[in-house]
């Protein structure tokens, strides 16, 4: 077979135009001229780059990572920080600068930064924004390509990259009776989700992670002064950032643990060493994050499952920290007695018309309590285990046997080259997964620095197909065993 003729453009369709998909498009467009590569990013939002995480117009929603650690370019960590200064954003939002000098700008600002990096490539025609929702991904009958059906238009492609946004939170079964109640907020990031909550309303927030903290901060900014109760099974609140940011501490990669228990013991010993060295615990978790792929790769599948099942909740609240501006709101409200966080499980609920009754059992107790609230906000976190069912494009691929869930129910199973693994265990030749949906293979892929590195790696794998003979990059061409 002949190589691609000079006039032939390899067509890449990226499903999802949030940070993951936009970063893949950016890396590809920077490395390859538009005459060689055509990139379509399918994203229903009016602008690329924001996605669910960075599209919020709410002023109190801030990035959870210091700006100096956020960048589209993994090899240039200061990329976003320099852009912030050049853009003048920090002059317009002086509250973004915390007392230790770190900047935590509003999330929508980071979305604008991503969009501006892509803008020249959109203007040149290298990247095209298809402003629609991907509804199905279908291989061509010839096996030489794909068609991505969208609410706007069909998109033909040689290669597809799945970079879909986080699924919406699952509503706990105990809250189903509240589904149609005016005071129930199923999607906390929906348009004007909290606008109907009055200043004196009593509020129950189900969940105590990052989204829960966002809701408290937003309610507070809106002038809310009523009582807020956050409820989760373990009652663990997301931790904050240190007053003085340190360098990553410890070594988890030279001789990585092979069991979940061994890893836990190593973490505890390293935390003790950090205390003795006058280093903070956040520095230990920063090192865990950086060495996450090595740690994850050293664990057998059963040990990974144990880690996800038993330790994930503790990891999440330490790893995914809230911006100090948000932490300050929670601390102030807690000190004033208008915010509390408890460990409990939901038992039942009922719409009583003038209030929402929720029954729960506190951790370690046998009695059932019932409390009444004016509003209930669901912040249980993305339903990653349901991604293949809830997202229509992913569901079409799963129904066709072209993708399958990873065994930890974190997303989509892939090989080490980020190619999706089909139902028959073989790698899909021209179907890639970028971002958090691939974390079953790579471990921690939720923090922005990790997602940025993975986007770069996926772009590198896609670029390799430019050198293949014509026709061999198709949807069903030359399938092989999944890389392990």
Low-confidence stretches: 1-7
Count of alpha/pi helices: 14
Portion in beta strands: 15-25%
> Distance between the terminal alpha carbons, to the nearest Å?
29 Å
List the helices and strands and how they pair.
Layout (H helix, E strand, L loop, with lengths): L9 E6 L3 H13 L5 E6 L36 H9 L1 H4 L14 H18 L2 E4 L3 E6 L6 E5 L4 E3 L1 E4 L21 E2 L17 E4 L3 H12 L6 E5 L27 H17 L4 H10 L1 H6 L3 H19 L4 H13 L2 E13 L4 E7 L6 E5 L1 E4 L8 H4 L1 H8 L19 E3 L4 E8 L5 H4 L5 H17 L15 E2 L3
Parallel strand pairs: 1-2, 1-7, 2-3, 7-16, 8-14, 9-10, 9-14, 10-11
Antiparallel strand pairs: 4-5, 5-6, 11-12, 12-13, 15-16, 16-17
What is the gist of this entry?
The chain is an alpha/beta fold and 484 residues long. 32% of the residues lie in helices and 18% in strands. The longest helix is centred in the middle third of the chain and has 19 residues, at 301-319.
Structure characterization notes:
With 484 residues, the chain is of the alpha/beta class. The chain has helices at 19-31, 79-87, 89-92, 107-124, 210-221, 260-276, 281-290, 292-297, 301-319, 324-336, 387-390, 392-399, 439-442, 448-464; strands spanning 10-15, 37-42, 127-130, 134-139, 146-150, 155-157, 159-162, 184-185, 203-206, 228-232, 339-351, 356-362, 369-373, 375-378, 419-421, 426-433, 480-481. Strands 1, 2, 3, 7, 15, 16 and 17 form a seven-stranded mixed beta sheet that branches. A hairpin with a 6-residue loop joins strand 12 and strand 13. Helix 1 (19-31) packs parallel to helix 4 (107-124) and helix 5 (210-221) packs across helix 10 (324-336). It is globular, with a radius of gyration of 23 Å. Mean pLDDT is 89; it is low at 1-7.
